[in-house]
Amino acid sequence: DARVTQTPRHKVTEMGQEVTMRCQPILGHNTVFWYRQTMMQGLELLAYFRNRAPLDDSGMPKDRFSAEMPDATLATLKIQPSEPRDSAVYFCASGLARDRGSEKLFFGSGTQLSVL
Amino acid sequence: AQSVAQPEDQVNVAEGNPLTVKCTYSVSGNPYLFWYVQYPNRGLQFLLKYITGDNLVKGSYGFEAEFNKSQTSFHLKKPSALVSDSALYFCAVRAIMDSNYQLIWGAGTKLIIKP
After folding, report:
1. Does the beta-carbon distance from A108 to B98 stay under 8 Å?
2. CB atoms within 10 A of CB A94
3. Cβ atoms within 10 A of the Cβ of B53, count?
4. Which of A94, B42, B79, B115 gives the lowest tally of CB atoms within 10 Å of its CB?
């Protein structure tokens, strides 16, 4: 079965270090989302790409977070420098949008990030 | 402003009984509505969606949801609950007229099915 692949599955790092999370969307999908999930805030949208172009990154702290899609098979989310409050599960999701947003999303298994 | 409300943090149901997980929404114009399920240590999985047409939508694992425009609700239902249905359930809405296709998520409802 086609699936969204996220790496690493778990990441433990120290405050101030750079963290890079990678996502391989399902082949042929044209939308990619990055979400952060915490107990307190629930699901938060960090970035949204359509046809590799960033459409919405308003939920992402711009001073330390960046999201890119260098090609159609790879999306990255970077945090530099990382802080303890960034500890969360980060999910990537992809979808095939044929019209105005009715596509279902396929989620990866997430990256569990712990910043000490 | 667009919003989604899942009024119950947790729902407890005995196995074999019918279950309902509630969702209400507020959007400008017509909505696309979705339900997703999250099992422990996993990503969210799509269950069903309402786009247009029949107000009763059937989805995966025997779940269904009814779109009620007058009550702006999209409650998730199942006639007979299984212990394996225990998970976290998310409702989401997208306004059709939203040019950014912003998907708004509810806070999630934890469903516990007791044997």
Report:
1. no
2. 26
3. 8
4. B115
Does B32 contact A107 at a Cβ distance shorter than 8 Å? no
pLDDT digits (tens, 9 = 90+) for A63-82: 999 999 999 999 999 999 99
| Cis amide linkage into residue A81, ω under 30° from 0 | yes
Query: Looking only at Cα atoms, what is the longest distance across chain A?
Result: 43
Q: Do A104 and B46 count as a contact with CB atoms less than 8 A apart?
A: yes
Which residues in A lie closer than 8 A to residue B29 (C-beta atoms)?
Answer: none
CB–CB contact B43 A107 (8 Å): yes
pLDDT in tens, A19-40: 999 999 999 999 999 999 998 8
Whether the predicted pLDDT of B37 surpasses 70: yes
Tell the residue number behind the tokens 């938060």, with chain if given.
Answer: A44
Nearest-Cα residue of chain B relative to residue A97 = B101
Cα dihedral A25, A21, B37, A60, rounded to 10, equals -100
Contact predicate A109/A49, CB 8 Å = no
Strands A106-107 and B10-14: unpaired
Cβ atoms of residues A48 and A65 within 8 Å: no
